[in-house]
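Following up on my earlier message about 6-O-phosphono-beta-D-glucopyranose. Here are the inputs again, as you asked, copied directly from the submission form:
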Amino acid sequence: MVSRVIPVDPFDLVIFGGTGDLARRKILPALYRRYRDGQMPEEARIIGAARSELDADGYRAEIRAAFKEFLRAEECDDQVDAFLERLDYLPIDAMGEGGWPELKTKMRDGVTQAFYFSVGPSLFGALAERLHTNGIARSDARIVVEKPFGRDLGSAKALNATLAQHFDETQIYRIDHYLGKETVQNLMAIRFGNVLFEPLWNAQYVDHVQITVAEGVGVGGRGAYYDKSGAMRDMVQNHLMQLLCLTAMEPPNKFEPDAVRDEKLKVIRALQPVAPADIVRGQYNGNDGPSYVEDAETPDSRTESYIAMKLEIANWRWNGTPFYLRTGKRMKARKSEIVVTFKDTPHSIFDEDAGQRANILSIRLQPDEGIDLSVTIKEPGPGGMRLVDVPLDMTFAEALGPDAENVPDAYERLIMDVIRGNQTLFMRGDEVEAAWAWTDPIIEGWTERRDKPAGYDAGSSGPEEALMLMHRDGRRWRDLT
Ligand code: BG6
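Thanks, got it. Here's what our run produced:
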């Protein structure tokens, strides 16, 4: 299978926070890969902007070093020099006045204009205003903003209002990198590109859905940020919420930005408040490494590094079908998946001990991206009707050959979508606000009650209490290995 690479139009992309971790680790490697693949045209230009007093050559040297660290060795070929030629740099202080007139003179007419705010949200307002007052951003310019987009409904609304002073909603690209993951997009392809699943995709046939994002890493190195955030703000309000929306939403009438986002918004609005008994928060104990409180350098921290919860969606399609979500750091394995467990057949014609089981559809996000449907068949051979589950496995690496090994990083897809002007995989302002409106009372509840997270061993599957959350419903979490 040969992948089609359609070059995007020439662009000027300014990365504020151009020397920061995200730019070095994700944004510039993603752009390089798109360049190497022929998608980024020669006329494209990337301007790093940050406070460091560098010149263009100094910046190129920094990015060359970052590539050595974050790209695979075989990717760092003779294209690196050609790519670095597309880079420029300007020292700019978001809160100051220096550098802005120079930036204006660097921007070209007739090419797509995009500004990536790879900085903390406290600088969004200053950047938006200076781009405007210095006459730099055109009315068709795009701005890209990263999470955290607020830490509650009030702050998210304030951020939206700040950006709205200078930019129209159609110009704002709020990144949730989970939406750029290949399998997440595949979830929509599977649901809406096949007739097979959609008739069964409802409370009548689905017993429950599990969404897991388990990470092996801890919070070491970013404990200060994380301790103010916790798994709920860092992962559930955004990444898991997006996975939930794509799993639960109604078919949009077109694969277009507002049609898709309208349907996602309806799911968030239909989420029921979550009772305290349906939430388990955890904090990892050090086993072979530092514990959460050591990583966070806060001995009495009550922030959760793990959360599991049972959600209900109050609408016709999902009434009575629970969605179980869990995410955590320092878990047994890195594993992210969406698993739909179907109900048993209404009546079994086979003996009780024949071994009939429910069908399970699992959509693996990482690692080993792919889709797997378990079906029941007869165990081969003589000896009566014994049943066995076999996977219909669509591991991308096998199905798609070499193309699948080069599954693009989420940022590659998303940045190209910004340049193409396609907002489908970006969050709209009202969607982010609705997610916070659902999240806030849950966080307020445990803050008021001064709930303490349950301990769990680093390298385990999470706290015992989370296992109970499932067991009491007669269900169990999928194994993390
Ligand atoms: C980020 C979170 O948004 O997503 C991190 O802030 C988390 O805490 C990361 O580790 C996970 O992303 P991925 O793509 O590695 O699953």
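One observation from looking it over: The domain at 179-407+428-471 is CATH 3.30.360.10 (Dihydrodipicolinate Reductase; domain 2). Hope that helps, and feel free to reply on this thread.
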